[in-house]
Amino acid sequence: MPFLDKFSTNHMFIGKGYGMYGIIAAVIVGLVVPLLLSSIFINKRKNRQRAVAVEVGGEPGITMKNSRFSALVEVPWEGATTMAVLFEQSCRKHAKHPCLGTRKLIKKEVVESSDGRKFEKLQLGEYQWLSYGVAFEHACNFASGLVKLGHDIKDRAAIFADTRAEWLLAFQGCFRQNITIVTIYSSLGEEALVHSLNETEVSTLICDFKQLKRLSAISSRLETLKHVIYFEDEGEAGSLSNNGNWTVLSFNEVQKLGKENPVTPRLPSRTDIAVIMYTSGSTGLPKGVMVSHGNIVATAAAVRTIIPGIGRNDVYLAYLPLAHVLELAAETVMLSAGSAIGYGSALTLTDTSNKIKKGTKGDASVLKPTLMATVPAILDRVRDGVLKKVEEQGGVSKRLFNVGYKRRLLAIEGSWYGAWGLERLIWENLVFKKIRTILGGKIRFVLCGGAPLSKDTQRFTNICLGAPVGQGYGLTETCAGATFSEADDTSIGRVGPPIPSCYIKLVSWEEGGYTISDAPMPRGEVVVGGHNVTLGYFKNEAKTNEVYKVDENGVRWFYTGDIGQFHHDGCLEIIDRKKDIVKLQHGEYISLGKVEAALAASDYVDNIMVYADPFHSYCVALVVPSRHAIENWARSVGIEYQNYGELCNQDEAVKEVQQSLLKAAKTAKLDKFEIPAKIMLLPDAWTPESGLVTAALKLKREQLKAKYKAELDKLYQ
């Protein structure tokens, strides 16, 4: 996410406006009074059972289901068995309420930096809203327009665009005619794009103007494409002439066509395929996961029960890729609850984001969302940005932040009342209120998924953003759903109990040393079964049969390849991954993911990939260092360098980062063979656009190994 590279907290002035005596008095009150009150108001967190064991079919193991429901949840309300029905009924119920919001472009300009590089800067206005009723009309018009255009309703349509309101309208419009949608990441490379469109035999491609310009280079390789529909952008050229291979119309032209030629809906059933979702793929070409209407509504129904008080008063900030199952599931939840969805982008999210013109406001400042979804890498960098600003301010501001943070940490991990209630008021106004304005100041719940969230970052979010983090675990193959931590659960490092639409089973993996008889907690491969488990991989029966199983009771199970353990209250913790385990030369097993998570705690690490060659007795690592941290260190010790790449190659810098990794490894109690014996610093960030990480910012291990083969070979010399 490019906006995170320059994340800043310029609007955080800790303690500003308070006299020194006032600050001292506030600190005394904040420290002394809670100590007195906490002796009166001690109320330990509820230690309730969040999941219970159940007997199910299939392979033997230990199975848990959500304790709050006697049976698996399948629909958000009676009759809403498909995306088409869910959207229509929600639009009718909330017809006059804001549904989809987009900011108006006021001005676009190009600025030049001191080193000659040019950057596009945007000045954006207030949000302009479509009501639920109007959004439904747009979706119906688009559906009719598709038919009138000549799209055969038996054919598939693909959406290849960044997240925006028109994306969702086109998506819902296709369901009015039971058209299966193929979702493709806008960051996907040419080969993967051609593969995805040809494999699914797409006849209509829906894209934004930026992607439209990419199509000409691959037009001769697209075998079935007949129609291209593009989203118009302010400031871009108008309608384009038709390509020799397909017709080209704008989204608005198709809507107009449909409004003038309405077509009777042809609605889907629960078992029909709604989406073929191409994963970003950590290895090789992406696989298309077949997701039914029933899968999506089951996940939405389950997650709705977990977000406290979700409804019409909530405003959701949408900026993650809608082609990713996490964002698609989150927006479906919002639609089912009648919440407002305001669209933004990673490049315009905050006041200091890359594309926001200096002095103007980012999406979060204008929208003031109450809910948002995110991935761990974003929260990690928010945390790093705030801590960087605190360090720069120093003095009283830094001391206030540190004291306030520690006291709030005690409040969360200690008594629920007493220290928590009074200190929340004091430290809110003294320190944390300014930090929260970064994301609008009204965030009350954060949905986090896509990858493991570090314990430190989860606590930081709880304290500095003042919101519980619903850390979820799921995959595209389970329609984003598997487990989800609950709002009143203040523990860290876990991913919660099963969501109410599925079971979670642990199956022993003897080879890896994880068994359901392990003490103090049962361990094994995580297997998900229930209504949100998808139908398999498109045109890949062999892979489908390998990881999907149907038991004697008809329950569909997906074998995730992740290793988990059940806590005493039924919550799941992910502790390893089968594919990430390598056996070294002398027989030791090393979990690459576990080691990477431990070493990422170093302040010098922006990203890291640990590599283990089974023909050696040690591992190595490629490290993308935090530029801010490593350059600060270089200045402090007087190291001279011509450019950043040269700094990364200097032995002193490598040694400094390696010492930091060693400290992080000792803190995490890693074994000696798990600590990289050699490392290399790489100056270039790993981004989805580079193809080295997924849209959820997880490592694409095979692609990294291929790109840096020479570097890895050198580390083993």
From TrEMBL:
GO MF term set: 4-coumarate-CoA ligase activity; long-chain fatty acid-CoA ligase activity; trans-cinnamate-CoA ligase activity
GO terms classed as biological process: phenylpropanoid metabolic process
Oxidoreductase found in the keyword field: no
GO cellular component, one term: endoplasmic reticulum
Keyword Transmembrane: yes
Pfam families: AMP-binding (PF00501)
Top-level taxon of the source organism: Eukaryota
Coiled coil: none
EC number: 6.2.1.12
Sorted UniProt keywords: Membrane, Transmembrane, Transmembrane helix
Membrane-spanning segments: 20-42
Catalytic activity: a long-chain fatty acid + ATP + CoA = a long-chain fatty acyl-CoA + AMP + diphosphate; (E)-4-coumarate + ATP + CoA = (E)-4-coumaroyl-CoA + AMP + diphosphate
InterPro entries hit by this protein: AMP-bd_C_sf (IPR045851), AMP-binding_CS (IPR020845), AMP-dep_synth/lig_dom (IPR000873), ANL_N_sf (IPR042099)
AMP-dependent synthetase/ligase domain location: 124-538
Stated name of the protein: 4-coumarate--CoA ligase
Native source organism of the sequence: Dioscorea cayennensis subsp. rotundata
Annotated gene: LOC120261384
